[in-house]
Amino acid sequence: MPTNIYQVDSYDYTESDALFMDTNIWLYVYAPQAPDDWKTRIYSRSLVKILTAKSRIFIDALVLSEFINRYARLAYNLFKAAGSTINFKEYRQSPDFKPVAKDIESSVRRILKHCQRTESSFSDCDINSLLAKYGEGNSDFNDQLMVELCKSKGFKLITHDRDFKDCGVTVLTANNRLLT
Asked: Which of 45, 78, 87, 118 is the most buried (most CB within 10 A)?
C-alpha cells in the first residue's frame, strides 16, 4: 500500500474520517510550548477543523502513556535547567512535581474528551517482522505499532515525525520533509 501524504492544515476533513494522532501532535497542542511555535499553531488549527468536521479521533494506551511520560520529562528538563541536581525519579516524588502532575492530568482529560479509545492490535501484529525491522536499527518500535494499528483499523495518521515517509498509510502532516 503506498503512502499518501497530505498537508494537515489544508486537508478537507469529513465526518467519515477516522484519525489517529501521534504523540507529538498531542504534545504540540496540549503540552507547554513556546508561544510562537509554528507547529503548535498549525496543529491546533487543524484540531479545530477536525472537531468542526466531526471527524473521529482515536487514541490508544501507548500514545497516552508516551504523552504523559514525555510531558513529565519536558517539565523535569526545565526544572533541571533551573539548577536542580535531583534525578527524574526524585523529581517525580518531590512537591515540585505535584502541580505538573495536575497539569498533565488536565491535559489528558482534554485529549480524551476528543477521542475514542481503541486497542492497539498488538496481539494481531506480526511481532517477528516488527522485531526484525527494529533490529535493522532504522525504526522506532512504537512507530511500527502505530502503523500496524492504522493499517488494521483504516486510520489516517496525523504526525510530524518524518519516519513515516514510506509507512503505507495515509499521513497528514505539516512536516515539509514528509511532504516533499
From this structure: 118
From residue 55, give the alpha-carbon distance in Å to each of 2, 3, 16, 77, 101: 23, 21, 6, 35, 30
33, 40 Cβ separation under 8 angstroms: yes
| pLDDT tens digits along 2-39 | 679 999 999 999 999 999 999 999 999 999 887 789 99
Q: Kindly state which CATH superfamily the domain 5-179 is placed in.
A: 5'-nuclease (3.40.50.1010)
Contact 27, 71 (CB under 8 A): yes
- Cell digits of residue 17: 474520517
Three-state SS string over 51-102 comes to: HHHCCEEEECHHHHHHHHHHHHHHHHHHHHHCCCCCCHHHHHHCHHHHHHHH
Q: How far apart are CA 24 and CA 26, in angstroms?
A: 6
CB 117 within 8 A of CB 146: no
Neighbours of 139 (CB within 10 A): 15
Domains of the chain: which residue ranges? 5-179
Calpha distance 156→144 (Å, rounded): 14
Cα–Cα distances in Å, from 145 out to 53, 73, 150? 27, 22, 9
Phi, psi of 114 (to 5 degrees): -95, -10
| 1 membership: H or E segment, kind and range | none
